[in-house]
Design goal:
37% of the residues lie in helices and 17% in strands. It is of the alpha+beta class.
Length: 144
């Protein structure tokens, strides 16, 4: 495993295992058994790693590429009690684009979680449009 691949795995919080003078990643193989992968450059191994650690293959390829460059405006500060992930020097339009993307992902994850738990969701649907409330709400009583 190359050094840039190892750094990419660590950026994605994928645990590596030291194996002699090299490193490997534990994944579930094609047969269903747990195996150790050392060559994450191969597409089949990238798919196994992506599936095991819930990362898209595009994100994995981006972080494992030898010419990976982090966003120059992104800063990470590790403090005593908390860590900060900041974007410094961002234009207003870029900021609102990033904020809108964040909330879209957040709402989609909420909808998926609610559907998995069998709850009705009255927020936005998958297309981003608001869904009407189904039935009556106890809080909406008519006062004469």
């Amino acid at each position: 495993m190359f050094a840039y691949e190892l750094e990419g795995l660590r950026r994605l919080n994928i645990q590596d295992i030291k194996w002699g003078s090299s490193y490997r990643v534990k994944v579930r193989g094609r047969t269903g058994k747990m195996v150790y992968v050392s060559n994450v450059s191969r597409p089949i191994n990238q798919r196994l790693v992506a599936k095991q650690y819930n990362v898209s293959t595009e994100t994995l390829e981006k972080h494992l590429s030898p010419d990976y460059k982090a966003d120059p405006k992104y800063r990470f500060y590790n403090g005593n009690y908390m860590e900060s992930h900041l974007y410094e020097g961002v234009e207003a339009t870029d900021f609102y684009d990033k904020l809108e993307n964040y909330w879209k992902v957040r709402i989609l994850n909420t909808v998926k979680l609610d559907e998995a738990e069998g709850r009705q969701h009255s927020g936005r649907d998958r297309s981003g449009c608001w869904k009407p409330l189904e039935g009556k709400n106890e809080d909406s009583k008519v006062i004469d």
